[in-house]
Amino acid sequence: MRFYGSPIRYVFLLGFALLTAFSSTQAQTPALRSGIDYPAEIENPEITGINKEPYHATLMPYASLQEALVAKRHASTYARSLNGQWKFNWVPSPEKRPVDFYKTDFDVSKWKEIAVPSNWEVQGYGTPFYRNLGYTIKKDFPHIMSEPDKRYTAYNERNPVGSYRRDFEVPADWNGRRIFVTFDGVDAGFFLWVNGQKVGFSVNSRNAAEFDLTKYLKPGTNTIAAEVYQYTSGTWLEDQDMWRLHGIFRNVTLWSSPETHIRDFFVKQDLDENYKDAKVNVVAKIKNYGDKTSKAQSLTATLYDNAGKEVAKGTVTGSSINAKQEQELNINFTVANPAKWTAETPTLYTMVLTTGEGEIISQKIGFRKVEIKGRIFMVNGVPIKLKGVNRHEHWSDVGHAITEAQMIRDLEVIKQGNCNHVRTSHYSNDPRWYELCDEWGIWLVAEANMEYHGYDRKFDEEPTMKAAIVDRNVANVENFKNHPSVIIWSLGNEGGVGGTNVGAALTAVKTIDPSRPTHYERYGTGKNNPADLDGRMYGTAEDYIRVAKNPELTKPFYICEFVHAMFNSMGSLDEYSAAFDNTPEILGGAIWEFQDQALWNRRDPKHPILAYGGGFGEFPNDHYFIHKGVVAWDRKTVKPHYPEMKKAFQWISTEMTDVLSGSFRIKNKYQFIALENLDGAWSLTENGVEISKGTFVVPRVGARREGRLSIPFKIEHPKPGAEYYLRISYTQSNKTLWADKGFEVAWDQIKIPVNTATVVEPKSTQPVALSQTPQTIKVTGNGFSVSFDKKTGEMSQLMKGGLNVLTANGGPKPHLWRAAHRNDDMWANNIWEKYGVNNLKFSLVDIKAQAVDMFSVKVTSTIKGEGKEGFGVYHTATYLIKGNGSVTVDNNMEFEGLAISLGRIGVRMMLNKDLDKMKYFGRGPLENYSDRKASADVGLYDLNVNDQYEYEKPMDRGNHEEVRWIKFEDNKTPGFTIKADANLMQFSALPHTDEQMFPVEYKIDLPASTSTVFCLSTKTLGVGSASCGPRPLERFQVWANNSRFTYTLQLLNK
């Protein structure tokens, strides 16, 4: 029985007395706090495990070479899954647990069952917590059972315990073999029994806990029991930004090996100075688990290519191994010019290890060399760029118990989004993830399960935490050291500034694997950073360029988190990507984060919500901060963020060099592959309508090179006032692992400069009549009328065929804010509330009307919107109403008070709710904002008000930039068009007002729509990423400066 924790040699951390207390026949060592009896082991940070097998590479013995070449661990003859239904009991606190449940004569027949793997909260037990920063228990290290504030959920659920039990049988042909059980993930810690005998204990939720069960088993039916605690000493180091969910949430596998077994192995490889031939060093640790000395051991390492052909081979013979001891064997050989592994060319070989006693173990490997030259990060001698995402293991319907199919779907979405990189934030992932990343081609920053954000620097130097911090990093490296996809080890996330304890972890990591660079964000930059990479979170692109170019720095610069994608956000991503491309010292970075971490709360079937913090009534919580994914929870619904990422990260770009000859420069930004197996297509549009198209042969441009391209488009008879855009597209000519044939990998839309005649608007030849009463101004034409309220100065009616396009009080008036994006909460919304921008009090200053001629009438209205703290706006709107049913509105806004930041400068109209369908010419089809529009092509789009992407927390959405005109049409209500003047405008059309959306927590709680809320703006605030990063850049901000804009509204026949 061992206590593990030392970085190199697993050493005893406690004395023999505690070892004796933890014999297989006794209960846990008792402790008492707040009147609650609980096992002392769960609270001792120096106990990282009891009787666990030492950490090692993920492995599985196979019964044949054929099995080994396939290398599907769970399909091995020597593996049996213990997944499935287990008997289960949940209690809110340890003193209520069924203490003797592990005994074979304890009756669990009336217990309910729970699926393994799963999180018990998802199955309806206990309370899920969302926390970003801080703990869900009282902050009283090392005590996890201290009585918290009565508001805390943990006051009543002090430390929930899940008791799991099931029966199983060991295959008869395993007789004489060593039998182990591996728990790939249990949150947060657990005790294990087999057949009523205590086996061991483990903390560390996200690395495999493995136990030798051989001596506890018997022929026939066996009983396994696990007692899982929600809170352990590991809780202090698992303060990650995620839902806190618990239970046995990864695979449980029973497997067997010979008595003398390859316990661990490390396939080390290095390329020569020309990055051609490879030197291979296989280091294997063979352990004799038996009670007698084994015979001399031999080991053979055979390398096979992906066709199953033998490529290279080596053999070594060792000595005999004493009982319970292990021996290290080394095999060295050279491989002539193997295919190299990269994220773009993920070629794998299979290394098969065979002992003289017949044990067969295999590992998929890739040949690649990671090195740093100066400040440049290189793989196989080539500078690389990382463009990717931080990814939590989370799906909203299952929590953390994700399936292989869900992992594959994540990879499809990641690769299709032009990402080549994932940071395993902020813990070791399921072992299958690393295997899939090897196969699919992903550069991984493999992060250890360590974050103590809520205690900041406390554990930097805390001596009792050193073993645990080191243990988690050792586990991460030992488990995943053979994966070519892993190119950087991350020591953890957001835990003070490192100190002695993280320093010890760094030493341990480098001792095990000096071949890979290391990173720890809290080390920052400069001479005090002992890791191999500099880094910093959440700056602007300009900040990063400036830091990267600092001549005093000596390391590559890696941005582990940037453009915080919470709700409506992720501004200026294209600028970051350009900074990566154009700054050699910047390695790249990972967006925070990949997916919305919402969690379905269906406990009230009448009110299902994709919950964020507080959505289960938990306290404390961090509210909205969990909804921040580039992709939606289901990986199907397209969030506006995703195409923006795909566009910003695309690896091919096209620029026009000569419009007359149709010449273009094509740039291949892939780092290892030429432009091959691609089809090219182009499309020319005139005012959004395709007028010609064609295909082209994509030139074979080498990696990191430029080429030339000619496209034979022609514009023979330009229309007056027309705009012409050429779209160039690159699609896959073959099916790949991650996308079908025809999938578009890159595109560019280029505006074609064409001199066109000015459009001359026809003069109106239809008369209009002006009439006034003390209350109203009315202008009447052929089948239409426009009315104004003299008390408010607002347009009150816009009538066509006897029907009013506007709802009550729906005429255009100034609208300067928006229902805050959660990024706005961090700065702008406070300004809007302080100065009353979100609740302007409107009053009439002046209104007058005059007939210009028999065909037109001019109405001029000035109103004042008064806020607070001296802020206000005067809006003078001059309406020129013509007999053809057009209303040209010239708007002049003059501000008083401070020139504060605004959400927009524009007007809002409340339209008949039947006007919910429109066509527009502008950027689309998804919502876009001034700093998130690179992926939104200029075109002609149809839009349904009720069919736009909707955030779970209601907020401003649906903006469209650079709009020329919008046309509302419906078969129930008269339609109209709105056309911008020479200055393009922005618009949104939503079923709810900002005032309705802002206070509502979940979209399901919004009231029924009563109108189409139409906002037309001359300027809109960008989205930025200020929830955990920079606000929109200066040029994307809107200030209370005097503004003038014009639009024309044209009524249509019904």
TrEMBL record:
Reaction(s) catalysed (UniProt annotation): Hydrolysis of terminal non-reducing beta-D-galactose residues in beta-D-galactosides
Biological processes per GO annotation: lactose catabolic process
A single Gene Ontology CC term: beta-galactosidase complex
Enzyme class: hydrolase
Keywords assigned: Calcium, Glycosidase, Hydrolase, Signal
Protein name, per record: beta-galactosidase
Cofactor list: Ca(2+)
InterPro entries on file: B-gal_small/dom_5 (IPR004199), Bact_Beta-galactosidase (IPR050347), Beta-gal/glucu_dom_sf (IPR036156), Gal_mutarotase_sf_dom (IPR011013), Galactose-bd-like_sf (IPR008979), GH (IPR017853), GH-type_carb-bd (IPR014718), Glyco_hydro_2 (IPR006101)
Residues spanning the signal sequence: 1-27
Record domain Beta galactosidase small chain/: where: 778-1050
The species this protein was found in: Mucilaginibacter auburnensis
Subunit and partners: Monomer.
Molecular function terms from GO: beta-galactosidase activity; carbohydrate binding
Family: Belongs to the glycosyl hydrolase 2 family.
Annotated PROSITE patterns: GLYCOSYL_HYDROL_F2_2
Pfam hit, one: Glyco_hydro_2_C
EC number(s) recorded for this UniProt protein: 3.2.1.23
